[in-house]
Write a structure and sequence with these properties.
Length: about 950
């Protein structure tokens, strides 16, 4: 209970000092008012803590006053005592408190005063008896009270037992409140910054900004600030512009403010404008910037034209917003410096100047930042396996500081059970709000592209996705490519080795929005990927639904078969994407019920939609596709393990069909339906044994897979042989030209000073051992080799007339046999002269070896089915004698490498950091490069292989 405090003779009595945030105290007066709370008030007063407390029980009609004070507070103390649950007023306050906690407006510290947290959470024992006694179960508010009581104990609070020292407990509580108070003050300082901070005196005086900056955790910011400052030459009389770009939450504004605070003092005219995105974009309303920059003066008399200026313009979303500044660049005093931040680099493409892309935090920086927000600001012990649990959240945040901050706040003070509970759905409301802004500003076609990628096409090839987003209309095709590039310019996606990548944060947001897009955005296009929703629609919906754009169903999650009625798909006239797949194994080799079709059609199937572009149906149950199937826009057709005999009885026009997969369809006898597929690029007929009819080879512009297709007719075999011979000659010549005579089996490696595993390595670990989980059939579909990385500390290791080698032992499936066990070198340092050299710094070794080693293991194994999906990879440093104990492998990395444009990209999990894939490409090109003990300047001065290797590494 709470109320303002006044003098001792009055009902309420204000605390004598109004500093810091207000602390609302919720308690049961009958238990605590005349003992512990009295001492607490005295200590709060001594500690200058601003509190709000009710000295007497208020009547229920005054509850609105208390609610108002709760909303004005930033911290709430909730004292659960023996009789707490018997007070309706206490419980009503608790409901309001938790409502504000959920909205992110209030922090709560629960105190369990001679009661157990479990009793409060589960409303049991004496506490439960107080809550439910005397017929109170029928009270209308009871469900709200129960929800509030269940929510509070999940937040780590303070527990005072019967034998505990109340004095010691009080001292600890004051410390806890002080820590939370410091954090609130820090956040308040940020919130109180106006969108445009200016305070200027006389027109000829310095124009500057005065604002509070809370102490910021420096993780990674110092290095980024240094990189930014290198782009501006403050000794030059040339007017310079630096554009800071990056995704939401990456730290652009923070970096710009730090830069302004550090360097702005050199200039007599300096201004910073925050949140320009929210400023008007209309031509008639753009005078605000002119007004602020001219400061009431006319034209040439303004300071910005007479004095060197330092200007920061933050969060620009449209070039029109800074039109006045850009139009007057020639008139600005020479030597001025301008910093512009944006999350859409395309809006500044025509603006001259250097561009700085803010990099994401590396793993160490990210862990420190998460620890800062999740642990450092609370007086409690984090979960014992903090590092293990943190890794999941680090992977999700992807080095984004804003996401790490919000995740840390969400986890702060929570127990291990809550940490694990949050893992499946990390994207809390604050994270969604932060990243939703970028989505809301997209055009409708851009939203379509973003949601399609998030729900269906993450990690697919760019050309493949662009084809699916477009149609046979050339203008739409150009538009689709533009939309995809626009998303990249806005940092909503990125490109890596030809594939489209999307951060986990944005992907989870996109998948959630994809389900409700038809409601919120009025696009009329919903994407169904949630299992229960898809099953419900396929089995129960009997009404036309024009909003369905795509369906994704994992049949391995079906507990029983489902039947699709004949006209089910006719109810979805705008369906573009249909994918029935099995996440256990796309090749079905380890699926117990491999022959069982979980989705079947009792009768015939009707599907007249002309919008379909992507039709994937594992174990398609019918002998042919529906006769009314309109393939005019069909691009990708995959029917593996199906009962299909022919695609259609009649030839249909398929002008856009590029990819067809009929593998393991053992009933297939006729492919004549594809004779009009002039755009066909790939046809997979693996283990389609009875195949008899094949189109003439001279009309085939595509690649074929006929593995185990043993019953081809003689003519078909001859055609394939001739076609394959011609293709082989071309391939041989191409490889010879590309490799410049180098052996395709050769190991390529590089070494340079550093301490981080590059971000493009899909699997990482601390220490010398890595045990990655690999995707099924990882050695197929464009697999070309593996990349290995080891971070080695030499501890001033001396080299003289010896070689140091970093080696890797790969044990697939953890069985040491000739078929699954091999080792390979990663890289090394050698010294052949008599002079002794000392290796002082930590080094990064990266090696790449092609697929031949893995392929050899598979051939020796001779087994059919899935290749091993588990591996144990150990790194060690050796010399001419044996293992070098003085050298320590600090970290290691492993990644599967696939050729550009390989077809089955969606099945792979390795992620490559945008902008860093060049280092992998460089490794493939350089046979061997070693750079030992070279600093940054040395690396930049190397003009041959060293430059390529070092400059491509962003560690």
């Amino acid at each position: 209970m709470a109320m303002t405090t006044t003098t001792s003779d009055s009902t309420v009595e204000p605390p004598p000092i109004q500093l810091g945030p207000q602390v609302f105290i919720n308690f049961r007066g009958a238990d605590l008012r005349n003992n512990f709370i009295s001492f607490l008030r005295g200590e709060f007063t001594k500690s200058h803590i601003n509190y709000y407390i009710d000295c007497d029980e208020l009547r229920s009609e005054n509850i609105d006053i208390l609610f108002d004070q709760i909303r004005k507070s930033q911290i709430a103390l909730v004292f659960f005592s023996e009789q707490y649950a018997n007070s309706d007023c206490c419980l009503d306050e608790l409901v309001e408190i938790m409502k504000n906690v959920k909205a992110g407006k209030l922090r709560v510290i629960p105190i369990f005063f001679n009661v157990k947290p479990d009793d409060v959470q589960e409303q049991k024992n004496a506490f439960g008896a107080m809550l439910y006694g005397k017929g109170r179960r029928k009270i209308d508010k009871m469900p709200q009270w129960e929800d509030a009581l269940e929510a509070v104990p999940s937040i780590m609070g303070c527990v005072l037992g019967e034998e505990s020292s109340q004095y010691d407990f009080l001292v600890d509580l004051i410390k806890k409140v002080k820590k939370v108070e410091e954090k609130v003050l820090s956040e308040r300082a940020i919130g109180e910054r106006s969108s445009m901070l200016t305070s200027s005196g006389d027109s000829s005086s310095v124009t500057t900004i005065h604002h509070l900056r809370p102490p910021l955790p420096p993780y990674g910011m110092a290095q980024r600030l240094e990189q930014l400052q290198e782009r501006l030459d403050f000794g030059s009389d040339v007017t310079q512009i630096v554009k800071i770009v990056g995704m939401s939450g990456i730290g652009k504004t923070t970096l710009a403010e730090m830069h302004f605070d550090k360097c702005g003092k050199r200039f007599t005219f300096r201004k910073i404008f925050l949140g320009i995105r929210d400023k008007p974009k209309n031509e008639d309303e753009l005078s605000w910037l002119e007004t602020e920059l001219l400061n009431g003066k006319k034209g040439y008399e303004a300071d910005m034209f007479k004095k060197k200026s330092f200007l920061v313009l933050d969060d620009v979303s449209d070039k029109k917003q800074i039109k006045f500044l850009l139009d007057n660049l020639p008139r600005i005093k020479k030597g001025s410096k301008i910093v512009i931040t944006t999350r859409d680099k395309s809006c500044l493409e025509e603006v001259p100047g250097d561009t700085y892309v803010v990099p994401r935090l590396n793993e160490n920086e990210a862990l420190q930042l998460l620890h800062y927000h999740a642990v450092n600001n609370q007086d409690y012990t984090p979960p014992q396996n903090f590092i293990e649990l943190s890794q999941k959240f680090l992977d999700y945040a992807g080095g984004n500081p804003r996401a790490l901050e919000e995740l840390g706040k969400e986890l702060c003070g929570k127990d291990e059970a809550h940490w694990r509970k949050e893992l499946p759905h990390c994207c809390n409301d604050n994270i969604k709000r932060a990243f939703r802004i970028s989505y809301d500003e997209l055009t409708d076609p851009q939203k379509d592209a973003f949601l399609d990628i998030a729900c269906f096409f993450r990690s697919e090839d760019e050309d493949f996705v662009t084809s699916l987003l477009a149609s046979n209309d050339s203008h739409e095709s150009i538009g689709a490519a533009r939309e995809v590039r626009d998303l990249a310019n806005k940092f909503l996606i990125s490109f890596s080795a030809g594939q489209i990548k999307m951060p986990d944060i944005l992907c989870s947001l996109g998948k959630e929005l994809g389900l409700i897009a038809s409601v919120n955005d009025n696009l009329g296009k919903s994407r169904m990927w949630k299992h229960n929703k898809v099953v419900s629609v396929l089995m129960n919906n009997k009404e036309k639904d024009s909003t369905v754009r795509g369906i994704l169903l994992d049949v391995s999650q079906l507990e029983e078969e489902i039947a699709i009625a004949t006209d089910k798909l006719t109810l979805m006239p705008n369906l573009r994407y249909l994918n029935f797949f099995d996440s256990r194994c796309p090749k079905q080799c380890k699926v117990v019920d491999a022959d069982e079709c979980k989705v079947y059609v009792p009768d015939e199937l009707e599907f007249p939609s002309k919008e379909i572009r992507y039709f994937h149906w594992l174990k398609f149950p019918l002998p042919e596709l529906p006769s009314d199937f309109n393939p005019g826009n069909l691009i990708d057709l995959r029917l593996p393990y199906s009962k299909i005999e022919r695609i259609w009885k009649v030839v249909k026009d398929t002008p856009n069909l590029k990819w067809v997969d009929l593998s393991h369809s053992t009933e297939l006898v006729d492919l004549s339906a594809l004779c009009q597929a002039k755009s066909l690029q790939r046809l997979n007929l693996e283990v389609a044994s009875p195949l008899a009819v094949l189109r003439p080879a001279e009309q085939v512009p595509s690649s074929f897979i006929f593995t185990n297709c043993g019953k081809l007719e003689h003519l078909a075999k001859n055609e394939i042989t001739c076609y394959g011979h011609n293709k082989s000659r071309l391939l041989s010549e191409t490889l010879n030209r590309h490799n410049k005579g180098l052996s395709f089996e050769a190991l390529v490696a590089t070494c340079f000073p550093g301490s981080e595993v590059p971000a493009w390595f899909g699997h990482k670990a601390s220490g010398p051992v890595l045990e990655p989980e690999l995707p099924r059939h990882w050695s197929e579909s464009g697999f070309v080799g593996i990349a290995l990385c080891a971070i080695v500390s030499f501890k001033e290791q001396k080299i003289k007339n010896n070689n140091l080698q970093v080696k890797c032992i790969c044990d697939f499936n953890n069985v040491k046999t000739s078929s699954s066990y091999f080792n390979c070198p990663v890289g090394g340092l050698s010294e052949t002269g008599d002079e002794q050299r000392t290796i002082k710094s930590t080094h990064v070794f990266i090696g790449y070896t092609n697929w031949l080693n893995i392929k050899k293991c598979q051939e020796e194994d001779g087994k059919k089915g899935c290749v091993p999906t588990k591996a144990s990879i150990k790194f060690q440093v050796t010399d001419d004698i044996g293992e070098v104990k003085n050298c320590e492998v600090l970290k290691c990395g492993f990644s599967l490498v696939y050729e550009y444009g390989s077809w089955d990209a969606s099945s792979r999990t390795d992620d490559v950091e945008p902008g860093e894939v060049e280092s992998l490409a460089t490794i493939k090109k350089v046979s061997k490069t070693t750079i030992a003990n070279c600093g940054a300047s040395t690396m930049r001065d190397d003009k041959v292989n060293g430059e390529a290797s070092c400059s491509s590494t962003k560690s």
